Structures are given as structure tokens and as C-alpha cells.
Amino acid sequence: MENGNLSYTHKNYLIETIDRLAMHKMNVLHLHLVDDQGWRMEIKKYPKLTEVGAFRVDQENIIWSARLPVSSLDKGTYGGYLTQEDLKELVKYAQLKNVEIIPEIEMPAHVSSAIASYPELSCFEDPIGVPSGSVWPITDIYCAGKESTFEFLENVLDEVIDVFPSRYIHIGGDEATKINWEKCPNCQKRMRTENLKNPHELQSYFVKRIEKYINSKGKKLVGWDEILEGGLAPDATVMSWRGVKGGIEAAKQGHDVVMTPNTHCYFDHHQGHQNEEPLAIGGYTPISKVYEFDPIIDSMTVAETKHILGGQANLWAEYIPNNSQSEYMIYPRLAAMAEVLWSPKELRDWNDFSSRITTMFERYKELDINYAKSIYLVNPTTEVDLDKKEVYLSLINEFSNSDIRYVLGNQNINENAIKYTKPLGFKETTIVKASLFKNNKPIGKIFLDTIKFHNAVACKVNYISPYDDNYKGAEALGLVNLIRGTKNHHDGQWQAWLKKDMEVIIDLENEKTIKEVTMGSIENQGRNIYFPNTIEVYASTDGVNYTKIAKTEHFFAINPISELKDFKMSFEKTTARFLKISATNIKTTPKGTDAWLFVDEILVN
Fold it and tell me: From the candidates 19, 74, 175, 201, which is the catalytic residue?
């Protein structure tokens, strides 16, 4: 999203996207026009939806989920919207390309932008601001008990239907936290009047009522799989995103389904090794995983499969700062999605596809599309034999029968590369460079890593402050096992402390002369993970009397990326057998939540 109004920048990008959908033989563009953080379509009857709801407080320098709460008094300056004329122009252009645009107007949740504009749409009518970032749980939702809510939504839908001639109107329906409905007198009255047992059935009433109105306009309702809860509307189509279970259930009930499971179809996930990729919401969905997608599930009956309309790729933009990165996340994964959706299962072959996709790369390059080259990345996995104090590095790539070559030390990979055939073993600090090769030349980004050995490898660690059970790393030897953590903080190599300081004692087994201690950490403020405030190192020869030999400080700063950092502390040569290392947690994040401190290795030299 750009500062100012969306009309020019995003209308042109959407036109380009329509061209590229047509190029890939994709025939539907699902346009998500409403969310908590912005209302993106002009509604003439309700001008505040765009005057207020289309703009949020500018916190774009902060990771999405670390952004601070705002109030109704805070004026939004970042955002914009598309006018109805903009959207009609897009629809007309898409029709020329045989692309159908399906609008999504979220309800009953993901509508903070609407409630910020018109607080009377909520249960308790409390004024709120348009959120700058993530909202969870989503409790500011439309009141299901007020007739005025449905009057508002019907009026909005009238204008939406006037702009979009699509067969379907998407109403969202996902992630509604209904705690306000449980307390709201209007909602409780509605439940009694309609003989509804619980809030799930109230949401079902909500969806069914909206479906009836949409049907009266000659349209069909489609929503996320949460609309199954409490009973599915009679003619509704389900988009199954929480895996395929909802889609299977809907098909069994005789409803049409679009399969879009987050396991294969979410293009906001990383598509390569996280250390080499831009910040994303999380997950790992490489192009090879997309190619495994099949909207038809083996367990389905023939009758059920007839209800599967197809599949859909989703790109949510919380971590997409500009159009260039949007392209990066979409292409070339969209090519894999197109092929699996249009090709008979028996004709799909990853080896064949991966040999052809490079031709598509040339097309992307000619069209000046910022496509991802993640498929070329060499991905490492590391194992360690602590008894032998030996590290084994394996190198893989998405291409079948990859020609991976490597060099050690400072050798030139263009001239001295050795073909990789089996895991590489190391017993001393070594630089490794590796690349995928084609026609005897390296292609893609060069993999570079340094396997770092040190004096504390496999030594006993006494945890004065125990790590959290959710992040145990390699447990007893997790801080001295040679394996470094990645930007994927769930990779099993990190030990973490929630709102607590870290304090450990390392027994070097005998007295050693040391001059440097390094502690590895990660910061991802969107995940409430922060670098330590201070790190202190104490030395002892007897394990009783300790002397401080090093200290380093880190001052808090807003960090818009996920970052790995080695805190290196050098000092005069010291003889020690025991080292006490303490690191202080910031305890509380700027948002007021508990802060994590993550550590992957303590290196002693």
C-alpha cells in the first residue's frame, strides 16, 4: 500500500495482475475489499466508510503484528480506496480478459474499519480507531441483533452488486470472536426470538439472512469455511482455507466448494529458506509444495467431487510493503497453481514442470515482473555428532537431480567448485559456499555459511534460569551443540525465556585460556521476540568465585525486520573453567505484552 489514495497506484497494479492472470489461464480474481485495517471500496450511501475507514495511523515502520493500538481520536493518514468508477473500469477490463472479479465484503468480523466509521454498527457502540496492524481476538464485529445492521449491509451490498456483475458475492465470515454477542442484549434477544442455541447458530442466522438477500439479487453467496459453524446457509459456496476438512464436509452436504488450504495455497508464506527470504507472515510454501496441491481429495465420492469448483491462491498483504514484493510472492508460484488446476492428475509431473518453469522465468523477465528465484536456493540441514564433535551439512534443492556444487574456505566457486554428492563433515571452523549449477555455471543466490567450532562444544550447561517448555532447543546441550538457529524461530534450535532473564553456567571441563564469548540471538518484534538489553560474562576457576570479564548493552529500537545477531564480547585473555552468562529480557513489549528472549548458541573462544 502506498501513502495517499489507492486509486492510481493500485488500480494500475490490479490491471497488470488481470493481464498476468489471463496469461496463466486463471479466470477469477477474488478481490478482498474490506478488513479491519481498511475499507477499500467507495460506498456512496455511507461516505465515512472511506473518509474514516480507509485510512489508518501510519505505523508502517513497525512489523505488522507489533503495531501499537490506536484510539478513535487518532487520525489515520495512511491508506486510500478505489472509487466505484475505478472498480467498474477494472471489471470492464477483466471481462475483456475473461477474468471474473468476485468482491469480498467481510462480515460479521474483520470490520473494525466499518465500526470506526459507524460505531452504532457494533453491539455496544464504543468508538474505536482503524487498527494500524494485527487485531486478535477480533471482538469488534457487527451486531447481529440490530435490524439497522442488516439495513446497512443490504444497502452496501446493493452498491457492490451494482459495480460487480459476478455470479458470486463473497461475505468472508471468518475469525469472528463472538464474546460481545454473548453479552449484547440485542443479540440475546435475537437468539431467543429465533430459537438459537448459541452464538455459532447466531452467526448461521446472520449468514443465512444475508444469503437470502444476495439470492434475491440473482447472486450466490460464498464464504470462508467458518460459515459451516452453526449450520450452513442453503445455497452457500464454501472456500475451505483451514485445511480441506471444511471443504470435504460442505461437499458431503451438497454444497459447492473452492479448495484453498493454507498448507498449499497461501502465497504470503515463505517460499525459500527464511534466512534468504523477505519478511513474511510465516509458514513455508515453496513452489514444489504448491505443485502438490490437488483440490480433489482421494476420499471423496464421485458425487462429492462434482461440487469442487476449483482452487484458489491467496496473497494477504500484511507483510507486503509494495507492488514489487507482491509480484515476488505471487510468481512463479501462480504458474504451479495454474498447472495443477488445469491439468489432469495423471499428467502432472514435478520433474517435467521444474524443467519448463525456467522458460516462464524468461517471460517474467521480459515483462519486468519481479519474480522470486527461490527455487534456485540451496537449502541446508545440519546434524551434529557431539561425541565426535563433528558437524554434518546436507545441501538440497527443489529441482530433482540438482547439480549442487561447493567450495570450502575462500576458494572461488566459479573455478574450484566440487560436485556435492553426500553430507559434508567438519571438525573445525570452516567457510562453506554452495550453489546450484547449470551449464557449469552457478545460478541463483550463493549459499554462504561458516561452521563455527568453539571451546564450549558439548560442555555441561547448568540452567540457573530454566528455558520455556515451548522452546527447548536441543535441551541440555542446546546452547553448545554447534547448530545455529534460523529466522524460523520454530526450527527446533532456539531456547527461549518468556519475561525472564537467561542465566547459565558453562563448565569447560578444564581450565582454558579464553578471550571472546559470543551469544546468538534473534529479534522478530512481530512475534514479541526481542534482543536482550544487556549480556554479562563472569569467569571462575573454581565454580564458586566469579569475576565479571565482559558486558555488552543493546538499546531498544523499532526493528521492522526479522534479524539474527551475534553479540560478540572480546576481553583480555583470561583463564577460566566456569563461565556464567546472563542476558536480561526487556520483559514487556511496547504493546504491553510479555516479551521473549531467544538464544541459539554461546560460543567460547
Answer: 175
Are 105 and 69 in contact, with CB atoms under 8 Å apart? no
Where do you find CATH 2.60.40.10 in the chain?
377-451
The span from the CA of 550 to the CA of 425, in Å, is 33
Residue whose C-alpha is closest to residue 550's, from 508, 586, 579: 579
Grid cell, residue 309, equals: 469448483
How far is it, in rounded angstroms, from Cα 368 to Cα 11?
18
The answer to whether the CB of 397 falls within 8 A of the CB of 420 is no
C-alpha cell at 243: 485445511
* 175 given a catalytic annotation: yes
Catalytic status, residue 110: yes
Q: Is the peptide bond before 108 cis (omega within 30 degrees of 0)?
A: yes
**Maximal C-alpha separation, the chain:** 84
Percent helix, percent strand, percent coil in the chain, to nearest 5: 30, 30, 45
Give Cα 508 distance to the centre of its chain: 41
Catalytic residue, chosen from 10, 30, 35, 454, is 35
Give 44's pLDDT tier (boundaries 50, 70, 90): very high
Over residues 535-580, the pLDDT tens digits come to: 999 999 999 999 999 999 999 999 999 999 999 999 999 999 999 9
- Tell me yes or no: is domain 377-451 CATH 3.30.200.20: no
7-373 has CATH 3.40.50.1100 classification: no
| C-alpha closest to that of 272 among 362, 204, 333, 359 | 333
Mean of pLDDT values over 199-222: 96
Q: Are 89 and 552 in contact (CB under 8 A)?
A: no
> What angle (nearest 5°) sits at the alpha carbon of residue 1, between those of residues 287 and 172?
70
Torsion over CA: 227, 223, 325, 360 (sign): positive
Query: Residue 5 pLDDT more than 70?
Result: no
Please state which of the ranges 19-33, 193-207, 229-243, 558-572 shows the lowest mean pLDDT.
229-243
State the catalytic residue, choosing from 110, 264, 454, 554. 110
**CATH 2.60.120.260 location in the chain:** 460-604
Summarised one tens digit per residue, pLDDT across range 334-378 is 999 999 999 999 999 999 999 999 999 999 999 999 999 999 999
460-604: CATH number: 2.60.120.260
Residue with cell 460464498: 222
Residue 1 pLDDT: 30
Average pLDDT over residues 191-214: 96
SS (H, E, C) 485-546: CCCCCCCCCCEEEECCCEEEEEEEEEEEEEEEEEEEEEEEHHHCECCCCEEEEEEECCCCCC
CA distances from 366 to 21, 270, 369, 371, 534 (A): 16, 25, 8, 11, 50
Looking at 135-271, list the stretches that DSSP marks H as alpha helix, in order from N- to C-terminal side.
Answer: 147-163, 179-183, 185-193, 199-216, 245-252
Distance in angstroms (rounded) separating the CA atoms of residues 14 and 6 = 11
Looking at residue 232, its pLDDT comes to 86
For the record, the C-alpha cell of 332 comes out as 512463479
CA–CA separation, 425 and 390 (whole Å): 7
Instruction: Tell me: pLDDT of 6 over 80.
Output: no
Tell me whether residue 35 is one of the annotated catalytic residues: yes
Whether the pTM exceeds 0.85: the reply is yes
Residue 160's pLDDT band, with cuts at 50, 70 and 90, is: very high
Q: Looking at residue 166, what DSSP letter applies?
A: -
